């Protein structure tokens, strides 16, 4: 019997994640002072796409339990009618992200990323992703996604388990 498929984890960057959506982070973001110079606004950090077909934005909080390593990746999900943003709240540690391009699911196109607690992500409409993967501690996230009359979550089981392999630069998370 063969072991699980291996998915190498890479550091999360805007450039690497661009095919799947947006990285929500202050570093490198457009910003300017507001409110008489007492506040810095980091502007337009993600493309929220939830309003088609009678959709509306929802704001929720998810509390993720830490996953024991190694994590078995056995399913993926997508939201066909809207984007979904995950924005860490205070004291969030690192978390893992597993994604695949929108459209017909292809396991060979999956990629994995390690996000720091100061980085959020916004999955573009239809992008396949694994449910939230907190690594080190219970972690709270503000979620901005779609409410509306249509079901907006498709799940598929994977044919066999996939294991995350942390690159040397990411190994301290494992």
TrEMBL record:
A UniProt-annotated Pfam family: Ureidogly_lyase
Keyword Lyase: yes
Cofactor(s) needed by this chain: Ni(2+)
The protein's annotated pathway: Nitrogen metabolism; (S)-allantoin degradation
EC number annotated for this UniProt entry: 4.3.2.3
Reaction catalysis annotation: (S)-ureidoglycolate = urea + glyoxylate
GO biological process, one term: purine nucleobase catabolic process
Keywords: Lyase, Purine metabolism
Membrane-spanning intervals of the chain: none
GO MF annotation list: ureidoglycolate hydrolase activity; ureidoglycolate lyase activity
PANTHER family with a match to the protein in the record: UREIDOGLYCOLATE HYDROLASE, UREIDOGLYCOLATE LYASE
Similarity remark: Belongs to the ureidoglycolate lyase family.
Assembly description: Homodimer.
HAMAP family (UniProt xref): Ureidogly_lyase
Function comment: Catalyzes the catabolism of the allantoin degradation intermediate (S)-ureidoglycolate, generating urea and glyoxylate. Involved in the utilization of allantoin as nitrogen source.
Record protein name field: Ureidoglycolate lyase
Gene: allA
């Amino acid at each position: 019997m063969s072991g699980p498929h291996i998915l190498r984890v890479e550091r999360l960057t805007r450039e690497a994640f661009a095919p799947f959506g947006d990285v929500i982070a202050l570093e490198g973001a457009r910003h300017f002072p507001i409110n008489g110079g007492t506040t810095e606004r980091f502007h337009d950090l993600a493309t929220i796409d939830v309003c088609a077909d009678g959709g509306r934005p929802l704001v929720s909080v998810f509390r993720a339990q830490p996953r024991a390593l190694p994590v078995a990746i056995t399913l993926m999900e997508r939201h066909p009618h809207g984007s979904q943003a995950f924005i860490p709240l205070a004291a969030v540690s690192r978390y893992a992200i597993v994604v695949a391009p929108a459209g017909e699911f292809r396991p060979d196109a999956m990629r994995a990323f390690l996000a720091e607690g100061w980085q959020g992500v916004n999955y573009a409409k239809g992008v396949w992703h694994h449910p939230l993967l907190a690594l080190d501690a219970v972690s709270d996230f503000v979620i901005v996604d779609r409410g509306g009359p249509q079901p907006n979550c498709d799940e598929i089981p994977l044919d066999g388990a996939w294991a995350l392999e942390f690159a040397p630069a990411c190994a301290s998370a494992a």
